[in-house]
Structures are given as structure tokens and as C-alpha cells.
Design goal:
- The protein has 4 helices and 7 strands; from the N terminus they run H-E-E-E-E-H-E-E-E-H-H.
- A hairpin with an 8-residue loop joins strand 2 and strand 3.
- By secondary structure, the chain is of the alpha+beta class.
- The protein is 30% helix and 31% strand.
- It has a single domain, classed as Alpha-Beta Complex (Nucleoside Triphosphate Pyrophosphohydrolase), CATH 3.90.79.10.
- Its EC number is 3.6.1.55.
């Protein structure tokens, strides 16, 4: 971390301690699609930690004080799946801010998406217990059956709509 980033992080910590309001955390997720033999797939991780341990989710996590949500989405993709998205143009799907969307506290999340031309093999790491490409139809069924963490079922619906994948 550079000195500039460290100073920014410390300023946020000091400001948070002086503010009596409940903190709002910022998160970013990335929904990646690809086709294999003409079948649309989506990249999912299995959460390795609570909350929602064992449930399906998209690669994502906290936005650090020195980065944008887009930068965080790309960083989290590398950390949780090993996929480097630096040269992949990501499109904003939406901002998700419903109170109660995360049991750990008040979270606002930005979700991004892209359709990849290849299906690179993910390698689960960080807090992802597993990472794999799943046929979109199976992911939609899991979302309908409550198999997704947080509000990621809604994010999947919106990402499918935004990209037109699977239609």
C-alpha cells in the first residue's frame, strides 16, 4: 500500500470514529458469463465463510478506501478465482442497497458483468471454498431454490437481462 493509500485509509478510520451514524460498507461483485458448446455458463464461487457458508455467490467483496468499485470487482475476481480481468471491459449491472441485504450490517454493493470469449479455468482462493463455471439454467434453478447468498439471485437476474445471455 502506498503512502497516499495509507493516508486515505487512516482518514476514513478517523472520520468513521467521529461519526455517530451506523457505518455503511461498500462492496463490489462481478458476474461473468461464457459459452461452452453453445451453452451459456456463469462463474460462481462457493462461500467458504459465514455468512452463507456453502452457498453460491459471485466473486466479490469489500471496496477498499483507495479503490473504485470497478477496481475492487476486478481485484476480488483475481483473489477468489485467479482470473485477471484487467483487460476485460466490465459493465455496471446495478447498485444494490436494500436494508438487510447482508446480515453483517449495512452494505451497498455495485455489481458488474461481462461476457467472456473463453472459459478460463478458475482456481478458488481467499474466502472462496470453490469456484466453477455452472450452466446458466442450473444457476437460475439454484437461485430460485434459495441456493444463493445475499441478494445474488437478484443480481443474476439483472445481469442476464443486461447482457441478454441465455435468451
Amino acid at each position: 500500500m502506498s503512502l497516499r493509500h495509507w493516508v486515505a485509509a487512516m482518514a476514513v478510520r478517523i472520520a468513521t470514529r467521529l461519526d455517530r451514524r451506523a457505518p455503511v460498507f461498500y462492496a463490489a461483485d462481478v458476474v461473468l458469463f461464457a459459452h461452452h458448446d453453445g451453452v451459456p455458463h456463469v462463474l460462481l464461487i462457493e462461500r467458504g465463510k459465514n455468512p452463507h457458508q456453502g452457498k453460491a455467490a459471485f466473486p466479490g467483496g469489500h471496496v477498499e478506501s483507495w479503490e473504485t468499485s470497478l477496481e475492487a470487482a476486478k481485484r476480488e475476481a483475481v483473489e477468489e478465482t485467479g482470473l485477471d480481468l484487467d483487460r476485460v471491459p466490465l459493465r455496471l449491472v446495478g447498485v444494490y442497497d436494500a436494508p438487510g441485504r447482508d446480515p453483517r450490517g449495512r452494505y451497498v454493493g455495485a455489481a458488474y458483468t461481462a461476457v467472456l470469449s473463453t472459459m478460463p479455468a478458475p482456481v478458488a482462493a481467499d474466502d472462496a471454498a470453490a469456484a466453477h463455471w455452472v450452466p446458466l439454467a442450473r444457476a437460475v434453478k439454484a437461485a430460485q431454490d434459495g441456493g444463493f447468498a445475499f441478494d445474488h439471485a437478484d443480481i443474476l437476474t439483472d445481469a442476464v437481462r443486461a447482457t441478454g445471455v441465455g435468451r
